[in-house]
Amino acid sequence: MAEPNLHAVALIPARAGSKRMPDKNVRMLAGHPLIAYTIAAATHSGVFRDVIVSTDAEAYADIARHYGAEVPFLRPAELAGDLSPDIDWVEHALRELRSAGRTFDCFSILRPTSPLRMPETIARAWRAFVAEEGIDSLRAVEPCQQHPGKMWVVRGRRMLPLLPFGPEKEPWHSSQYPSLPVVYVQNASLEIAWSRVVFGQRTIAGNVLMPFFTEGWEGYDVNRSYDWKLLEELVRSGEARLPVVDQAPYAPTAGSGSRATATERST
Questions:
Q1: Closest CA to 61 of 73, 51, 43, 78
Q2: Which residue in 127, 107, 102 sits closest to 198, CA to CA?
Q3: Which residue has the higher pLDDT, 247 or 181?
Q4: Which DSSP letter does residue 260 get?
Q5: What 8-state DSSP symbol labels residue 78?
Q6: What distances in angstroms separate CA 16 from CA 116, 178, 195, one per listed residue?
Q7: pLDDT for 31-90, tens place per residue?
Protein backbone atom coordinates (compact mmCIF):
# COMPACT_ATOMS: atom_id res chain seq x y z
CA MET A 1 0.00 0.00 0.00
CA ALA A 2 2.77 2.46 0.87
CA GLU A 3 4.44 4.14 -2.10
CA PRO A 4 7.68 2.22 -2.77
CA ASN A 5 9.85 5.33 -2.55
CA LEU A 6 8.12 6.91 0.44
CA HIS A 7 8.67 5.95 4.05
CA ALA A 8 5.84 6.84 6.43
CA VAL A 9 5.61 6.44 10.20
CA ALA A 10 2.49 6.22 12.34
CA LEU A 11 2.76 8.29 15.52
CA ILE A 12 0.25 7.36 18.22
CA PRO A 13 0.11 9.77 21.18
CA ALA A 14 -0.83 8.25 24.52
CA ARG A 15 0.04 10.41 27.47
CA ALA A 16 -1.13 9.22 30.87
CA GLY A 17 -2.41 12.48 32.33
CA SER A 18 -5.90 12.94 30.90
CA LYS A 19 -8.10 14.85 33.34
CA ARG A 20 -11.55 14.50 31.72
CA MET A 21 -11.28 10.71 31.39
CA PRO A 22 -8.39 9.32 33.42
CA ASP A 23 -6.45 6.60 31.58
CA LYS A 24 -8.81 6.77 28.60
CA ASN A 25 -6.10 5.60 26.21
CA VAL A 26 -5.91 2.21 27.92
CA ARG A 27 -9.49 1.85 29.10
CA MET A 28 -10.90 -1.56 28.27
CA LEU A 29 -13.25 -1.84 25.29
CA ALA A 30 -14.51 -5.18 23.96
CA GLY A 31 -11.68 -7.06 25.61
CA HIS A 32 -8.72 -4.83 24.75
CA PRO A 33 -7.28 -1.49 25.89
CA LEU A 34 -8.50 1.35 23.68
CA ILE A 35 -5.07 1.96 22.17
CA ALA A 36 -4.99 -1.57 20.76
CA TYR A 37 -7.50 -0.67 18.05
CA THR A 38 -5.46 2.23 16.71
CA ILE A 39 -2.30 0.11 16.68
CA ALA A 40 -4.18 -2.60 14.80
CA ALA A 41 -5.60 -0.14 12.26
CA ALA A 42 -2.18 1.36 11.61
CA THR A 43 -0.50 -2.03 11.29
CA HIS A 44 -3.13 -3.54 9.00
CA SER A 45 -3.39 -0.46 6.76
CA GLY A 46 -0.19 -1.38 4.95
CA VAL A 47 0.82 2.28 4.86
CA PHE A 48 3.53 2.54 7.50
CA ARG A 49 7.05 1.26 7.74
CA ASP A 50 6.88 1.66 11.52
CA VAL A 51 4.20 2.22 14.17
CA ILE A 52 5.47 4.27 17.11
CA VAL A 53 3.67 5.11 20.36
CA SER A 54 4.67 8.32 22.14
CA THR A 55 3.88 8.01 25.83
CA ASP A 56 5.21 9.25 29.15
CA ALA A 57 4.16 6.11 31.04
CA GLU A 58 6.02 2.81 31.11
CA ALA A 59 2.77 0.96 31.80
CA TYR A 60 1.29 2.35 28.59
CA ALA A 61 4.48 1.44 26.75
CA ASP A 62 4.16 -2.15 27.94
CA ILE A 63 0.60 -2.33 26.60
CA ALA A 64 1.60 -0.78 23.28
CA ARG A 65 4.43 -3.26 22.78
CA HIS A 66 2.11 -6.15 23.52
CA TYR A 67 -0.09 -5.06 20.61
CA GLY A 68 2.81 -4.73 18.19
CA ALA A 69 3.82 -1.08 18.36
CA GLU A 70 7.28 0.20 19.12
CA VAL A 71 8.05 2.46 22.06
CA PRO A 72 11.76 3.19 21.56
CA PHE A 73 11.73 6.09 24.05
CA LEU A 74 9.44 7.69 26.62
CA ARG A 75 8.08 11.19 26.14
CA PRO A 76 9.59 13.69 28.61
CA ALA A 77 7.18 14.89 31.28
CA GLU A 78 7.51 18.50 30.12
CA LEU A 79 6.04 17.48 26.75
CA ALA A 80 3.09 15.60 28.26
CA GLY A 81 1.11 18.27 30.06
CA ASP A 82 -2.51 19.30 29.54
CA LEU A 83 -1.43 22.32 27.52
CA SER A 84 1.47 20.76 25.62
CA PRO A 85 0.98 21.39 21.87
CA ASP A 86 1.19 18.51 19.43
CA ILE A 87 4.26 19.94 17.72
CA ASP A 88 6.31 19.36 20.88
CA TRP A 89 5.85 15.60 21.08
CA VAL A 90 5.82 15.11 17.29
CA GLU A 91 9.11 16.95 16.92
CA HIS A 92 10.55 15.01 19.84
CA ALA A 93 9.54 11.69 18.30
CA LEU A 94 10.85 12.46 14.82
CA ARG A 95 14.13 13.86 16.17
CA GLU A 96 14.68 10.84 18.41
CA LEU A 97 14.03 8.54 15.47
CA ARG A 98 16.32 10.55 13.22
CA SER A 99 19.12 10.48 15.79
CA ALA A 100 18.83 6.68 15.67
CA GLY A 101 19.24 6.74 11.89
CA ARG A 102 15.52 6.33 11.15
CA THR A 103 14.16 8.98 8.79
CA PHE A 104 10.69 9.24 7.29
CA ASP A 105 9.27 11.25 4.43
CA CYS A 106 5.83 11.48 6.04
CA PHE A 107 4.16 10.95 9.37
CA SER A 108 0.59 10.35 10.45
CA ILE A 109 -0.92 11.22 13.82
CA LEU A 110 -3.41 8.54 14.87
CA ARG A 111 -5.04 9.21 18.20
CA PRO A 112 -6.23 6.27 20.33
CA THR A 113 -9.48 8.11 21.08
CA SER A 114 -10.70 7.36 17.53
CA PRO A 115 -11.01 3.57 17.70
CA LEU A 116 -13.58 3.33 14.88
CA ARG A 117 -11.04 4.47 12.30
CA MET A 118 -10.40 1.36 10.21
CA PRO A 119 -7.30 0.20 8.29
CA GLU A 120 -9.11 1.03 5.06
CA THR A 121 -9.79 4.54 6.39
CA ILE A 122 -6.06 5.11 6.72
CA ALA A 123 -5.36 3.53 3.34
CA ARG A 124 -7.97 5.76 1.68
CA ALA A 125 -6.46 8.87 3.26
CA TRP A 126 -2.95 7.82 2.23
CA ARG A 127 -3.98 7.38 -1.40
CA ALA A 128 -5.51 10.85 -1.40
CA PHE A 129 -2.44 12.38 0.25
CA VAL A 130 0.17 10.98 -2.13
CA ALA A 131 -1.98 11.76 -5.18
CA GLU A 132 -2.28 15.45 -4.32
CA GLU A 133 0.44 17.89 -5.38
CA GLY A 134 1.45 21.09 -3.64
CA ILE A 135 0.15 20.31 -0.14
CA ASP A 136 1.80 20.21 3.26
CA SER A 137 -0.71 17.97 4.99
CA LEU A 138 -4.06 16.23 5.03
CA ARG A 139 -6.53 16.42 7.90
CA ALA A 140 -9.74 14.51 8.61
CA VAL A 141 -12.91 16.60 8.65
CA GLU A 142 -16.68 16.12 8.81
CA PRO A 143 -19.69 18.46 8.54
CA CYS A 144 -20.10 20.36 11.78
CA GLN A 145 -23.17 19.65 13.88
CA GLN A 146 -23.31 23.10 15.48
CA HIS A 147 -22.89 25.70 12.74
CA PRO A 148 -20.57 28.62 13.61
CA GLY A 149 -23.04 30.95 11.89
CA LYS A 150 -25.29 30.36 14.92
CA MET A 151 -22.55 31.04 17.49
CA TRP A 152 -22.02 34.16 19.57
CA VAL A 153 -19.26 35.89 21.52
CA VAL A 154 -20.55 37.29 24.80
CA ARG A 155 -19.01 40.48 26.17
CA GLY A 156 -20.60 41.53 29.41
CA ARG A 157 -24.32 42.05 28.76
CA ARG A 158 -23.95 42.18 24.99
CA MET A 159 -23.18 39.56 22.37
CA LEU A 160 -21.83 39.61 18.83
CA PRO A 161 -22.01 36.92 16.14
CA LEU A 162 -18.86 34.84 15.90
CA LEU A 163 -19.08 35.14 12.10
CA PRO A 164 -20.11 38.72 11.38
CA PHE A 165 -20.16 38.29 7.60
CA GLY A 166 -22.94 36.73 5.59
CA PRO A 167 -26.00 37.97 3.70
CA GLU A 168 -26.74 41.58 4.67
CA LYS A 169 -30.53 41.23 4.65
CA GLU A 170 -30.65 37.88 6.40
CA PRO A 171 -27.62 37.20 8.62
CA TRP A 172 -26.67 33.60 9.20
CA HIS A 173 -27.73 33.65 12.84
CA SER A 174 -31.29 34.34 11.70
CA SER A 175 -31.30 31.92 8.74
CA GLN A 176 -32.60 28.37 8.52
CA TYR A 177 -29.94 25.66 8.84
CA PRO A 178 -30.49 24.31 5.28
CA SER A 179 -29.64 27.72 3.85
CA LEU A 180 -26.28 28.00 5.62
CA PRO A 181 -23.03 27.21 3.78
CA VAL A 182 -21.54 23.80 4.60
CA VAL A 183 -18.81 24.15 7.20
CA TYR A 184 -16.50 21.33 8.22
CA VAL A 185 -14.91 20.64 11.58
CA GLN A 186 -11.73 18.65 12.02
CA ASN A 187 -11.96 15.38 13.90
CA ALA A 188 -9.25 13.46 15.67
CA SER A 189 -9.16 10.35 13.51
CA LEU A 190 -6.06 11.10 11.45
CA GLU A 191 -3.61 13.61 10.06
CA ILE A 192 -0.88 13.00 7.49
CA ALA A 193 1.93 15.44 6.75
CA TRP A 194 5.35 15.66 5.16
CA SER A 195 8.10 15.51 7.78
CA ARG A 196 9.62 18.67 6.30
CA VAL A 197 6.86 20.78 7.89
CA VAL A 198 8.10 19.77 11.34
CA PHE A 199 11.78 20.35 10.71
CA GLY A 200 11.41 23.36 8.41
CA GLN A 201 8.40 25.21 9.83
CA ARG A 202 7.96 23.65 13.28
CA THR A 203 4.33 22.87 12.67
CA ILE A 204 2.40 19.62 12.27
CA ALA A 205 0.26 20.93 9.41
CA GLY A 206 2.16 23.47 7.32
CA ASN A 207 0.27 26.12 5.39
CA VAL A 208 -1.48 24.16 2.64
CA LEU A 209 -3.92 21.54 3.91
CA MET A 210 -6.27 19.24 2.04
CA PRO A 211 -9.44 17.75 3.53
CA PHE A 212 -10.08 14.09 4.10
CA PHE A 213 -13.79 13.43 4.49
CA THR A 214 -14.47 10.72 7.03
CA GLU A 215 -17.52 8.54 6.58
CA GLY A 216 -19.98 7.13 9.09
CA TRP A 217 -18.37 6.63 12.48
CA GLU A 218 -14.76 6.82 11.25
CA GLY A 219 -14.21 10.20 12.88
CA TYR A 220 -15.84 9.41 16.22
CA ASP A 221 -13.72 10.74 19.09
CA VAL A 222 -13.92 9.78 22.76
CA ASN A 223 -13.19 12.50 25.30
CA ARG A 224 -16.09 12.43 27.78
CA SER A 225 -17.96 9.78 29.73
CA TYR A 226 -20.96 10.25 27.43
CA ASP A 227 -18.74 9.60 24.40
CA TRP A 228 -17.56 6.37 25.99
CA LYS A 229 -21.05 5.13 26.80
CA LEU A 230 -22.17 5.79 23.24
CA LEU A 231 -19.08 4.03 21.88
CA GLU A 232 -19.84 0.94 23.96
CA GLU A 233 -23.42 0.91 22.69
CA LEU A 234 -22.34 1.37 19.06
CA VAL A 235 -19.98 -1.60 19.36
CA ARG A 236 -22.44 -3.73 21.34
CA SER A 237 -25.26 -3.17 18.85
CA GLY A 238 -23.07 -3.72 15.81
CA GLU A 239 -23.85 -0.27 14.43
CA ALA A 240 -20.11 0.42 14.39
CA ARG A 241 -17.20 -1.99 14.14
CA LEU A 242 -13.73 -2.00 15.56
CA PRO A 243 -10.50 -2.93 13.78
CA VAL A 244 -9.52 -6.58 14.19
CA VAL A 245 -6.91 -7.08 16.90
CA ASP A 246 -4.67 -10.10 16.31
CA GLN A 247 -3.12 -10.34 19.77
CA ALA A 248 -4.58 -12.01 22.82
CA PRO A 249 -5.97 -9.61 25.44
CA TYR A 250 -3.28 -7.81 27.40
CA ALA A 251 -2.52 -9.26 30.83
CA PRO A 252 -0.18 -7.19 33.03
CA THR A 253 2.82 -9.10 34.31
CA ALA A 254 4.00 -8.85 37.90
CA GLY A 255 5.63 -5.49 38.43
CA SER A 256 4.35 -3.98 35.20
CA GLY A 257 1.17 -2.52 36.66
CA SER A 258 0.69 1.13 37.43
CA ARG A 259 -2.16 3.35 38.47
CA ALA A 260 -3.45 3.05 34.89
CA THR A 261 -3.56 -0.73 34.71
CA ALA A 262 -4.77 -1.01 38.27
CA THR A 263 -7.67 1.28 37.40
CA GLU A 264 -8.62 -0.92 34.47
CA ARG A 265 -8.58 -4.08 36.59
CA SER A 266 -11.00 -2.45 39.04
CA THR A 267 -13.61 -1.33 36.47
A1: 73
A2: 107
A3: 247
A4: H
A5: G
A6: 21, 42, 26
A7: 999 999 999 999 999 999 999 999 999 999 999 999 999 999 999 999 998 889 999 999
